[in-house]
Amino acid sequence: xxxxxxxxxGNSSRYSPGKEQTRQEEGLLYARFLADTRWQQKRLEIxxxxxxxxxxxxxxxxxxxxxxxxxxxLAANRHVPPWQYDNRHLVTLCGTCHRLGHxxxxxxxxxxxxxxxx
Length: 118
Hints:
alpha+beta, four-stranded mixed beta sheet, globular
């Protein structure tokens, strides 16, 4: 299974949606999302689902949850919090596989509107 398969459609892009936000601001927002208790609960759910193993190499240590795509809500003009993602867009990877994946693959941003939210 290729853990980096991404869903691409007419609403996907590889570019940052936030013209009004700098990359630094987006990074700070993302860090707050990952520190949120709701994300921590979602992360544990994904780790449990994947048997606390990297889905790419089978490692059991240094596990992280990878987003196969990022979501941006056009109607609200904001990034969708990661705890609201459908579980199929999340996968457990070890730190090494996660870093390697980000080096090899662009993670698309899916732009959502009221008609395609979930």
